[in-house]
Amino acid sequence: MNKKIQFGPRPGHGAAPAPDPEAWIRDRGGVDEAAAPAPAPEPEAPAEPTKRLTFDIPASLHAAVKSTCAMEGRKMNEEIIKLLEARFRPKQS
User: Fold this and answer.
1) 3 state SS for the chain
2) For 70-84, what is each residue's pLDDT tens digit?
3) pTM here?
4) pLDDT tens across 49-69, in order?
5) Distance of alpha carbon 68 from alpha carbon 74, whole angstroms
6) Cα-flanking dihedrals φ and ψ of residue 48, to 5°?
7) Residues 6 or more apart from 5 whose CB is under 8 A from it?
8) Is pLDDT at 30 greater than 60 in this prediction?
9) Which of 53, 51, 80, 52 is nearest to 64 (CA)?
10) Any idea what the Cα angle at residue 79 is, between residues 75 and 82, rounded to 5°?
């Protein structure tokens, strides 16, 4: 049994030169910078270290909190933190 294996041209021998990286950056492949989406803002560092709190709640309450927060464009954890702070943070004079 005879097998023939064919190889392509060797790299660097008659191959097209590598594109100039500076030209690629400058041309940006036809991408319009004005149309490009703005980068997402960096999340702010918390004022103090955080701790994870895990607890069980009824499924109906979870659904109510989640749907209300979604309709109002708020995050569940932010709303729950507000509730906990209102109840447990000492009043500042």
Assistant:
1) CCCCCCCCCCCCCCCCCCCCHHHHHHHHHHCCCCCCCCCCCCCCCCCCCCCCCCCCCCHHHHHHHHHHHHHHCCCHHHHHHHHHHHHHCCCCC
2) 999 999 999 999 999
3) 0.46
4) 889 999 999 999 999 999 999
5) 8
6) -145, 165
7) none
8) no
9) 80
10) 145
